[in-house]
């Protein structure tokens, strides 16, 4: 059993737990920012990309002559011109050893595999002139059939159907399986399902995870300056260190000759966790011309070509006994990778494998993903990466089980979840959950939203047949944070580790510089890390300067994603601070003329036990700077570094409750209230945490209600601008009621858990469960996301029209001959 | 090329510009006012919002030549003598920003909103900011920041009257 603190007992120490206003904000609210696109260098040239309008085509010819003659155009390059210099886009996670991985050149010379792929680049003195000239590049394409539909692509082979990459002979990039019986973490799921078919309950459903676009607010931008000893790249990226590695590994330029800087970066959400073709092209062009170059994408280019997220079909089978005890879970995914296997694209569904069982004690579990190549934009991590998909599926299924049993959705969850006194708990997926208290979080969330009153109102509205029906959605989620223990990554065939690095520099004037390998893009590292150092080192918050996002300053790091910065990077920082204190200890003993064993360190000072003698560590830093009087054999520096490799993930959780009103005549959904109680362990800065939760919630709600990347039958992205891709606005959303329970993580010194992705992972099923809950009595048990008014209306009315056996309802059983359920989408009316 | 004369953040400027040049390009590329940013190409996101003669406009939707003779205020011209504008202060106080990319536009639009309606309801704030997209905050703390600024401004006024 792990401890869950009474909120009244958790007294914040000096800095940790305090609502510090962010250090980052001063420059951001005054416009004194350092976005990549703000940079101007002497003689800098601008790039414009020529992109394929076709999803799959051979490049027959490219005529660049008119473009080259255009005003102020310096050069035009095609894939053939860059063949030797452009490097390649890497896949860092071949999920199986025989993964089928198409070559991914930044600019292909002979064939394009998705609409938006770059076929030529124009270099001009201004961005406008480059773009004008790009219009003059004449490209002749021979169109090829395109693999666009995920299910059709999965079923295709060389003889039947369309292949995204005909030379590969298949669209199946990888099949990855986890089986609890084989792994020894549980029993056989087929037996569990067979048993349940005899005397229990079997729930079979097929759910769709629609394709989403991360849609960070700052368009991607890259500047490359080749005019020094090092080639310097500024990029709007989440991963400056990984990017530097990839540049070196694929171009042959020594890593030591490359410096990557991620200055202020305007959001990422996974969308900037990529080594992009545009970065590689800019790097190649700058080297070829010996001139600084800049490329900044338009929003339309961003939506079309920056990697997308989600995009799965999920076939799910849940087995339970008649009293609602779960006995097995089988998951079969089709995951759309798009045209290429992105840097961790194939691994995203695999990350979900460990989370479908969620907080429930399934004794048997089997997970399979088939990763499929199509001629659409590549997919990769998007906030949550694998875990939202898993959480959505299991939380929807638990509601279906509750409906089958005729009990409250929270009752069936509580019956099956891991009890507070059972932590640490090893799951059927082989993960060891560190701590948690689902009972406490759920009790608090119910109280916050007024659960019982809402249920009473729901009954009342149903009884009087109100046009507006009330639904209450539940999501009792958990997730795995802190990517990642390197040993586990190795077992999963990932190409790199999961450690993080930190450095603490004690300056002569008593100030402290902290260097972290985590690279923030809105999360507030500068503030939160200052709080940690201020407390542990006993120096003022204001005296700590956090440096990051520049490989020359931060020479070692694995960047920011997977809710890792605090739980991995923060732990590295704690260890670096502790090394500083230990290096200072013999010097303090020497200067205080005391035995080292008599020294205590607290609140920034060494004191001699039993005396009033003391010495601040900042004064020791000054003494070390002078080095006039150090003990023999002691290094003239307190500066310390630490690299920390986590031994385990950590597992935040929470109970999210959502109340929606559904107008049964129009299908309109109105969110009335959203309350959540998350447990993310100890909190460094509650203000920043609240911001992460709010923003996460809206991204998850947006998946439930509004967002979807849609391609037409020609492979054209028809949601290619902010007119068509529906990001929620302030007017679409509500204010949230959030709170926390605190079960400190046992996997790091600070007792913290990740929070960056929690809201997004939790909220999507809470909202869809609420919508379905509102109209379940009308015969609806599923609505495909996003739950648009049209889809809701069709779900309600196709049922009352009597069309089909269970229109608006997911299929009860799969057809074993096709493996497809076929009826799941009837609420769709064929529209997608 | 067309000659324009205008005032930007209190500074008189004159330039020859291409008629097709957008105001936001003029601010960023000619004046180096990179505090104002470009987030889209369809005038949906509002990141480039500035004030033109005291009213908020999306500067990607105004040609530089249309600003001839006008007074422009950008995010960089708000703080006076090192003192933040109350709305800037409120965004920091309420954690109304994360990555900060939408923030210049969001602050400029919030000021315009409060100029027109010093005591807005939550609904009025949400409707008034509908043309500005934020991907980080979920808008919760942006709404709070505008409410906070409204309260701070009215209490300042009250103090002023009292004195």
TrEMBL record, chain A:
GO terms for molecular function: iron ion binding; oxidoreductase activity. The keyword ATP-binding does not apply. Gene3D superfamilies: Aldehyde oxidase/xanthine dehydrogenase, a/b hammerhead, Aldehyde oxidase/xanthine dehydrogenase, molybdopterin binding domain. It comes from the Bacteria. SMART domains: Ald_Xan_dh_C (SM01008). This is Xanthine dehydrogenase family protein molybdopterin-binding subunit. Residues 1-24, 799-832 are annotated as: Disordered. It comes from Nocardioides immobilis. Residues 30-145 form the Aldehyde oxidase/xanthine dehydrogenase a/b hammerhead domain. InterPro entries: Ald_Oxase/Xan_DH_a/b, Ald_Oxase/Xan_DH_a/b_sf, Ald_Oxase/xanthine_DH-like, AldOxase/xan_DH_MoCoBD1, AldOxase/xan_DH_MoCoBD2, AldOxase/xan_DH_Mopterin-bd_sf.
From TrEMBL, chain B:
Keywords: 2Fe-2S, Iron, Iron-sulfur, Metal-binding, Oxidoreductase. One of its GO terms (molecular function) is oxidoreductase activity. Pathway: Alkaloid degradation; nicotine degradation. Residues 2-78 form the 2Fe-2S ferredoxin-type domain. InterPro entries: 2Fe-2S-bd, 2Fe-2S-bd_dom_sf, 2Fe-2S_ferredoxin-like_sf, 2Fe-2S_ferredoxin-type, Beta-grasp_dom_sf, Diverse_Oxidoreductases. Pfam families: Fer2, Fer2_2. This is (2Fe-2S)-binding protein. It comes from Nocardioides immobilis.
């Amino acid at each position: 059993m792990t401890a869950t603190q009474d909120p009244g007992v958790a007294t914040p120490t000096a800095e940790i737990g305090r609502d510090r206003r962010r250090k980052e904000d001063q420059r951001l609210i005054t416009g004194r920012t350092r976005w990549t696109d703000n940079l101007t260098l002497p003689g800098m040239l601008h790039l414009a990309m020529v992109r394929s309008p076709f999803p799959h085509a051979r490049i027959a010819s490219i005529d660049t002559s008119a473009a080259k003659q255009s005003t102020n155009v310096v050069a035009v390059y095609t894939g053939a011109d860059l063949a030797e210099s452009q490097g390649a886009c890497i896949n860092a996670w071949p999920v199986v050893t025989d993964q089928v991985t198409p070559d991914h050149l930044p600019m292909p010379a002979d064939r394009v595999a998705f609409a938006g792929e770059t076929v030529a680049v124009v270099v001009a003195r201004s961005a406008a002139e480059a773009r004008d000239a790009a219009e003059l590049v004449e490209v002749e394409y021979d169109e090829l059939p395109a693999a666009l539909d995920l299910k059709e692509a999965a079923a295709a082979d060389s003889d039947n159907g369309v292949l995204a990459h005909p030379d590969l002979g298949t669209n199946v990039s990888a099949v990855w399986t986890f089986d609890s019986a084989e792994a020894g973490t549980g029993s056989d799921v087929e037996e569990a399902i067979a048993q349940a078919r005899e005397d229990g309950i079997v729930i079979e459903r097929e759910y769709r995870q629609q394709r989403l676009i991360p849609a960070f607010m700052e368009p991607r931008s890259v500047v490359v300056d080749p005019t020094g000893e090092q080639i310097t790249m500024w990029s709007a990226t989440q991963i400056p260190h990984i990017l530097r590695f990839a540049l070196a590994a694929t171009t042959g330029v020594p890593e030591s000759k490359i410096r990557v800087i991620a200055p202020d970066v305007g959001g990422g959400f996974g969308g900037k966790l990529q080594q992009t073709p545009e970065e590689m092209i800019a790097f190649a062009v700058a080297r070829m011309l010996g001139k600084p170059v800049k490329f900044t994408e338009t929003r339309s280019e961003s939506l079309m070509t920056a990697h997308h997220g989600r995009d799965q079909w999920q076939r799910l089978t849940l087995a339970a006994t008649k009293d609602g005890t779960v006995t097995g879970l089988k998951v079969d995914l089709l995951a759309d990778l798009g045209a290429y296997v992105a840097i961790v694209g194939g691994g995203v569904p695999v990350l979900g494998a460990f989370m479908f069982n969620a907080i429930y004690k399934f004794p048997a579990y089997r997970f399979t993903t088939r990763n499929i190549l199509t001629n659409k934009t590549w997919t990769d991590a998007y906030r949550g990466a694998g875990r939202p998909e898993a959480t959505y599926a299991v939380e929807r299924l638990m509601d279906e089980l509750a409906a089958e049993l005729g009990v409250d959705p929270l009752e069936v969850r509580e019956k099956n979840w891991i009890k507070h006194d059972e932590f640490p708990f090893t799951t059927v997926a082989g993960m060891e959950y560190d701590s948690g208290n689902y009972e406490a979080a759920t009790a608090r969330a119910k109280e916050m939203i007024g659960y019982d009153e809402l249920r009473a109102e729901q009954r009342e509205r149903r009884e009087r047949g109100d046009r507006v029906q009330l639904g209450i959605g539940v999501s009792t989620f958990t997730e795995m944070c802190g990517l990642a223990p390197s040993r586990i990554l190795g077992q999963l065939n990932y190409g790199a580790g999961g450690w993080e690095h930190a450095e603490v520099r004690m300056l002569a004037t008593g100030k402290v510089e902290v260097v972290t390998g985590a690279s923030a893009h809105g999360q507030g590292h500068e503030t939160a890390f200052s709080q940690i150092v201020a407390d542990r080192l006993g120096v003022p918050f204001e005296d700590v300067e956090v440096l990051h996002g520049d490989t020359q300053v931060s020479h070692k790091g694995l960047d920011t994603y997977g809710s890792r910065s605090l739980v991995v990077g923060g732990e590295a920082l704690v260890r670096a601070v502790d090394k500083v204190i230990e290096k200072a200890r013999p010097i303090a003993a020497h200067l205080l003329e005391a035995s080292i064993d008599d020294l205590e360190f607290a609140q920034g000072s060494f004191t001699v036990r039993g005396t009033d003698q003391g010495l601040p560590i900042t004064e020791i830093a000054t003494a070390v700077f002078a080095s006039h009087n150090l003990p023999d054999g002691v290094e003239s520096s307190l500066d310390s570094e630490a690299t920390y490799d986590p031994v385990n993930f950590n597992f935040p959780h929470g109970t999210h409750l959502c109340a929606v009103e559904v107008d049964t005549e129009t299908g309109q959904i109105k969110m009335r209230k959203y309350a959540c109680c998350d447990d993310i362990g100890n909190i460094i800065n509650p203000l920043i945490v609240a911001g992460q939760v709010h923003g996460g919630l809206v991204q998850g709600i947006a998946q439930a209600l509004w967002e979807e990347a849609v391609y037409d039958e020609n492979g054209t992205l028809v949601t290619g601008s902010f007119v068509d891709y529906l990001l929620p606005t302030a007017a679409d959303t509500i204010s949230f009621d959030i709170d926390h329970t605190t079960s400190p993580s046992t996997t790091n010194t600070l007792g913290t858990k990740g929070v960056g992705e929690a809201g997004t992972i939790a909220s999507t099923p809470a909202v869809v469960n609420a919508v379905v809950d509102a109209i379940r009595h009308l015969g609806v048990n599923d609505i495909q996301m996003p739950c648009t008014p049209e889809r809701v209306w069709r779900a309600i009315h196709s049922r009352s029209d009597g069309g089909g056996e269970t229109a608006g309802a997911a299929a009860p059983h799969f057809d074993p001959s096709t493996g497809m359920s076929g009826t799941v989408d009837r609420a769709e009316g064929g529209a997608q | 090329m067309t000659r324009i004369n205008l005032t930007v953040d209190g500074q008189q400027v004159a330039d020859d510009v291409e008629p097709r040049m957008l105001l936001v390009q003029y601010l960023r590329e000619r004046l180096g006012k990179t505090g104002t940013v470009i987030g889209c190409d369809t005038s949906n996101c509002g990141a480039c919002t500035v004030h033109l003669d005291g009213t908020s406009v999306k500067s990607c939707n105004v040609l530089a030549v249309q600003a001839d003779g006008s007074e422009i205020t950008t995010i960089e011209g708000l703080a006076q003598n090192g003192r933040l504008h109350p709305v800037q202060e409120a965004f920091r106080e309420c954690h109304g920003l994360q990555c900060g990319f939408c923030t210049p536009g969001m602050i400029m639009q919030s000021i315009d909103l409060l100029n027109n309606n010093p005591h807005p309801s939550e609904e009025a704030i949400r409707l008034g900011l509908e043309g500005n997209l934020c991907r980080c905050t979920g808008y919760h703390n942006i709404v709070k920041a505008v409410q906070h600024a409204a309260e701070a401004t009215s209490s300042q006024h009250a103090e002023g009257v009292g004195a």
